[in-house]
Amino acid sequence: MNNKVQSLYIHIPFCTHLCDYCDFPKLQYFRNFAEKYIESLIKEIESYKIKNLKTIYIGGGTPTALDDDLFEKLLLYLAKYIKTVKEYTIEANPESLTNSKLLIAKKYAVNRISIGVETTNNKILKTINRQHTFEDVKTAIINARNNGFDNLNVDLIIGLPHVNKAQFKEDLNNLVTLGIEHISCYSLTVHPNTVFGIKGIEEPTDSFARDLYDYAESFLKEKGFVHYEISNWAKSGRESLHNLTYWKDEQYYGVGLGAAGYINGIRYKNTRNLDKYLSGNYIDEKEIVDKKDDRTYFIMLNLRTIYGIDLAEFKEKFDENLLLTKHDEISALVKDKLLVHDRENDRIYPTYEGMMVLDQIIMQLIEE
User: Tag placement on the chain: N or C end, fewer CB within 10 Å?
Assistant: First the structure.
C-alpha cells in the first residue's frame, strides 16, 4: 500500500489472567476465540498489501499466552516479511515464555523479547495479581540466552503500591545484574475501569515519581545505559527501532483489537469490540492529520528522545525555520538548560531536566 510504511504493530489481546492495573485491550484466553482471532488478524494484515518491513512488534495482552500451534501459525504467516526486517520483537510474561515458545520465536527470526517484570518483589507481584515470581524472570532470561536471544527488554512500573524507593533501587539492581540490554520504566497510570481504579489506588505523586526517575537516570547511566527516550534506557545500539518509528512521527501499520496505526496522513484506532473485529469491522476511529496537526505531532514526539528535532527535516517538511519562528522560546529554553541547540548537527533536543518538564516545552513550541 505504501512503501514509506515499514513498521507493523500486531496486538494479541489474550491473557491467562488480568492484572489489576492494566487498561490495554485484553481478554481472558480461550482457545476457540484465539483461533478465530488469528484468522481475522491475518485477513486484516492481508488487507494492507504490505511490501517491505523494517520492524515487527507483537504486543498485548500476552502474545505468549497463545497455544504453541497458534503462536507458530501467526509467526509462520509473518515469515514472508522477515527478509527485510531488522528488529522483530515479541512481548512476553515470564511464566509463559516457555522453551517451546522461544524455539518457535527463534525459528521465525524473532530477535528481540520484551518481558513484563513490573517489580522483582514476589509479595508485591502477588498483590497486583501478577502470576510470576522473580525466579521466573531469571529462568526466562536464562532460557532466552540459551536459545540465542541477545536483545532483551524488561518493563518496570514506577509507583506501584508498596514499592518505595528502596524497593525500586533493588528492582533496578536485580535486573541490571541479569545483563539485560534495555529497560523501560513507566509511571503508574490508574484507569477507572481497572481493579486499581475501582479500589481507589492513587497514582504516584509527581515528586515521588521524579525522585525515582532521578535515581534510575544516575544508576543506569553508571551501568552503561543511554537514556534515549523519556521512559527508556538502552545499551548503545540496543535502542528500540520499532518504538523510534512512533517517536520520529513516522508511519506504521497497527493491526489487531484496539491497535493504533498511522498511514497516508490518517491516524486510526481499531475497535476494542471482539465481535466487531471478528466480523471484519476493524477500524473504529480515524483522524485526518493536516499539516498543522502533523507539526504538533512532530514536535511532541521527536522531543521525547535525545535525538530531538532535526531542524533541516522540520524545514523541509513544514516549510518553516523553527529557529526563526520560535527564536525567543528556544533561546530561553536553551538558557534554562532544558534544551540543547546542537549547531553542528542542526538539531534541538531535550536535556534530562527538559524531558522531565516536556509538556511545558512542547506547549511553547506548538503555540502559534
Answer: C
